[in-house]
Fold this sequence. Notes:
Layout: H1 5-39, E1 43-51, E2 62-65, E3 70-74, E4 82-86, E5 91-96, E6 103-108, E7 112-124, E8 130-142, E9 147-153, E10 159-165, E11 170-175, E12 180-185, E13 192-197, E14 210-212, E15 217-222, E16 225-230, E17 235-241, E18 257-263, E19 268-273, E20 277-282, E21 288-293, E22 298-304, E23 309-314, E24 319-324, E25 329-335, E26 343-346, E27 353-357, E28 362-369
Amino acid sequence: MILFGRDLREIIHMKKTALARYVLSVMTIFLLFLGVANAGTSTFKLIKVILLPTTDQGGDAVSYDPSNHCVYVSMGKTNAGGVVINADTNALVKVVRDGLVRPYGMAFDHQYVYWTSNKLEHSAGAGNNTVPEKKSRIFVVNKADWKVVNVFDTVGSGADGIWVDQKLGRLYVAMDDSNWIDVYTLGKAPKFVGKISLYPETGHGPDLGVLLSARHLLYMPDDSWEEKINLLTGQIEDKTNVAPYFPVSATKHHPDTKGQIVDPENHTLWVGTTGSRIFVFNAGNLKVLKQLPARAGIDQVAYDPAYHLVYAFESNAKGFNVYNARTMKPVTFVSTGYGKTHTGAVDPGNHKIFVYVGEAHAVYVYQPVHD
């Protein structure tokens, strides 16, 4: 049978359509396989141990700066200072001291790193006793040469977490003792412009929240509460208390909310707690979607969006938990073998995890390995 004109064109069109559907189905299967492979990552290889110039075990926050591929680490609570690590080469680039005593959190813009510090100064008390007094400061470090170019006292006390909002030109500092957020301008010499009140007014205070500058939101842990703050109004839009999810204790303070990340793909907020659990919230209304177990109390949380992996760093567990952000299920636990493994950060470009291991006086660098 010989086909002409319209009949031939229809057959060609049908074959092209069938081919397109086949290609689409193959691509869909490949993408699903890739997603499963990413989500199924369950082993982590220790590729580097970066020894730190400190003998103090009590380090604090770790943060990754995508603008220069550097990792910033707050070392011990004495006079150790902070360090800058090249995330590509795993090399220690610079030790920042210049008076940076008892460093906590850090934030950054294109020119500066802003580092919180809480120095204990002793003043004369009754009799021959001395009274320790916390002096909270912000150190401004120039990223061009890593020199401290300014140091200023905060208005509140207990400077902890810190965030740079380049859209609004603001620097937000969580004041742990004062239980509010100091607000400053950006630049070499930040100026105080106000404060944001938190809830409750008393308690264990704020910690390591997460900023969504594109939406003018700051998620903040405070005591046992998780709060969503509108930065345009300076008001708390929503808040949720995690204390009712734990057994009541007559001798212990209820668990506190701690470090956290936002997963924009699934519109979720992952919040660590001191109660050996991580909570998954709806990022919009702060409704609890799920609770997942951890080996110990969580301090800092990090996220790899390409691999959909959430990392929770736990001091007393001697390692960190890994969770799948899509399935909201545990993946594995990675042991460092040392205590004080309570902070860390991820380079989403090369997927390396930089883990502060306090008792080893080092940063351990891990690489995910696909099964």
